[in-house]
């Protein structure tokens, strides 16, 4: 689908969607309890639905109830996986979070599980799990292109060492399962741990559900065995990864307010607040809401290794900041839903921005007027949303291909764009 976007400026308030990262985690923790839990405030998306369907495939009963807030649901999760006499199929769709967080649970379920997936997920690495499963004697069979992937076996408690420079999701996946083993375990990263903040999110979620993880220095985690997940009622906070688009849009051209965010959140993408402020952005709390106002921005150097999901929106902001914006330590972004370095460089250059792509970084010189016209969203939800906020700077209407990609994380994004001043026209459907 190609959408045409026109906007003079952005104005209004957005009820930020729920944190996708925390939604995954609360649903999984609830599934591992022995009773019914209520996970409130979830904004559905393709990735969240992928996790729910995999949990259902493993025998977990999950029901959905609509809430008063638009696009919000409460999920009733009856904890407990089932053991089947036949192989079961789990479709991770295009969600790396679903696959990496739930693969250890699939093994723990005592089933023979065949995972499927599609899109760029077929190119996302599972090497840390594969190496660990081989050491533990767990059956692992996959095709050249990852799927189908079949696993079966039993986890053995003890010391587990794995690489942390591919994704922190491998650590989070293990932390869900290891507390359920009878004996204690230790998980160690053999490399610097990328996006360690996401493991902190996992530990915080587990703590809410009654499970304790002891985090030590240098990415070492001690997990006491024999623990039990506590059922209950849990609320999913707003997503700073999604709020980033609105906060950026506000400092670029407009005044936008975000509600539903946790001021003391552990989400790594909460960095967007400090980063925009460092660039000169007027962003701050007004009561329990976060407001961004049009500002004169300056380019800065930003290490995106701990906040990779902010890369596309920061690149967009850089086109309208004075001087050079350098986004570095970004090589890992070539293996996301798209090659995000190349996708953003190409799209911004097409619009007329001055961008230099290097192996692990982008350098953007601004501010530059943008031509508008047609750009590719590279079938990547975050690329599409980052490009959309540049509509007010385009001399001609901005047309974004693959606009439907937002369903992966933010299905109501285009409705919210209209809410704050965007005029949309659907150009074609492919």
From TrEMBL:
Binding site for phosphoenolpyruvate: 20, 124, 169, 340, 382, 408
Main location: cytoplasm
Molecular function per GO: 3-phosphoshikimate 1-carboxyvinyltransferase activity
Compartments in which it is found: Cytoplasm
Documented EC number(s): 2.5.1.19
Pathway connected to this protein: Metabolic intermediate biosynthesis; chorismate biosynthesis; chorismate from D-erythrose 4-phosphate and phosphoenolpyruvate: step 6/7
Catalytic activity: 3-phosphoshikimate + phosphoenolpyruvate = 5-O-(1-carboxyvinyl)-3-phosphoshikimate + phosphate
GO cellular component entries: cytoplasm
NCBIfam families: aroA
Oligomer status and interactors: Monomer.
Protein name (database record): 3-phosphoshikimate 1-carboxyvinyltransferase
């Amino acid at each position: 689908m190609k959408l045409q976007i026109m906007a003079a400026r952005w104005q209004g308030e957005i009820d930020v969607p729920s944190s996708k990262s925390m939604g995954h985690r609360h649903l999984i923790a609830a599934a591992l309890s022995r009773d019914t839990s209520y996970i409130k405030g979830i904004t559905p998306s393709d990735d969240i639905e992928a996790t729910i369907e995999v949990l259902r495939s493993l025998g977990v009963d999950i029901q959905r109830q609509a809430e008063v807030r638009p696009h919000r649901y409460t999920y009733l999760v009856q904890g407990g996986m089932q053991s089947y006499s036949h192989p079961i199929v789990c479709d991770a769709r295009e969600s790396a979070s679903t696959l990496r967080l739930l693969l250890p649970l699939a093994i723990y379920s005592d089933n023979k599980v065949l995972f499927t997936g599609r899109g760029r997920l077929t190119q996302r690495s599972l090497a840390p799990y594969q190496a660990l499963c081989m050491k533990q004697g767990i059956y692992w069979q996959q095709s050249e292109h990852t799927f189908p992937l079949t696993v079966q076996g039993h986890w053995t408690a003890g010391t587990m060492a794995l690489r942390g420079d591919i994704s922190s999701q491998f650590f989070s996946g293990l932390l869900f399962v290891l507390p359920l083993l009878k004996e204690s375990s230790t998980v160690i990263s053999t490399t610097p741990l990328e996006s360690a903040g996401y493991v902190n999110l996992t530990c915080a979620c587990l703590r809410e559900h009654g499970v304790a993880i002891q985090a030590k220095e240098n990415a070492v985690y001690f997990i006491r065995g024999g623990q039990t997940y506590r059922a209950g009622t849990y609320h999913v906070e707003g997503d700073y990864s999604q709020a980033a688009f609105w906060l950026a849009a506000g400092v670029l051209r407009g005044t936008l307010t975000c509600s539903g965010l946790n001021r003391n959140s552990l989400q790594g993408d909460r960095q967007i607040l400090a980063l925009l402020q460092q660039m000169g952005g007027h962003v701050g709390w007004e009561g329990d809401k976060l407001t961004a106002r049009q500002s004169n921005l300056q380019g800065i150097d930003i290490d995106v290794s701990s906040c990779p999901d902010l890369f596309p929106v920061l690149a967009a902001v850089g086109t309208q900041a004075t001087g050079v914006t350098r986004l570095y330590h970004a090589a890992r972004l070539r293996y996301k839903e798209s090659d995000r370095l190349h996708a953003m460089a190409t799209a911004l250059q097409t619009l007329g921005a001055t961008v230099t792509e290097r192996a692990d970084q982008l350098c953007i010189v601004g501010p530059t007027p943008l031509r508008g016209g047609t750009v590719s969203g590279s079938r990547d939800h975050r690329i599409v949303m980052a490009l959309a906020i540049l509509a007010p700077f385009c001399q001609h209407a901005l047309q974004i291909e693959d606009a439907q990609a937002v369903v992966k994380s933010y299905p109501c994004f285009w409705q919210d764009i209209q809410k704050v001043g965007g005029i949309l026209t659907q150009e074609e459907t492919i």
